[in-house]
Design goal:
Strand content: 15-25%
Number of strands: 9
Helix content: 25-40%
Radius of gyration: 16 Å
Largest sheet: 8 strands, parallel, barrel
Order of helices and strands: EHEHEHEHEHEEHEHEH
Distance between the termini: 29 Å
Length: about 230
Amino acid sequence: MKPNFQNFIQVAGVIDIEEANLLLDSEINYLGFPLRLPVNKEDLSEEVASKVIKNLMPPNYGIVISYSNTAKEIIELCDKVGSKIIQLHGSINIDEVKNLKASRSDISIIKSLVVREDNFDKLTSLIKELEPFVDAFITDTYDPTTRASGATGKTHDWKISKKIVELSSKPVILAGGLNPTNVYEAILKVNPAGVDVHTGVENKLGRKDKLLVKQFVNETKKAFKKLKM
């Protein structure tokens, strides 16, 4: 069963089985697991991630979020942890994306589009190149201070994400600094297929907060419903 990217809600940065269960109980069907990161420390080991992901049954899915950039490594990582969805956040040669799709059509590919102040033309080119080989795109934010590409906890210009939604023939997921107080407005302005949140639903200890998650879900569903009216 393939994932459905319409009205999609992902919570990324799952720390352990307890947190995964909290999210599932809060009507989150897509759990994100950042693994093999170039800079930041992983939230959990690949072994623990595997235990969580392999216990999920559709419509619940575990999504591997990684900067891996070869088809071989991506396939090895997905098979190791039992995921059929990969979210690619790093730079990757288009031939590697083609090889991944050709080798494993059962793996859904989400490709990040990191929004900067001056890279819209580059993003437009990426969309055209990658559309035939990916299942969805996800927009995220570049932080010029830390030079982090995504997972910054910061918003970007939503007008750019709106243009990306209009350009892309594939579903576009909105990420970057979303939280329960701004996700409703963001969805109405951008009209994305789905949304992704990480730190925006965490408490001061860095764990997902059940109340914040529930508020995020409610605001997201309210916005998607509004768009259909």
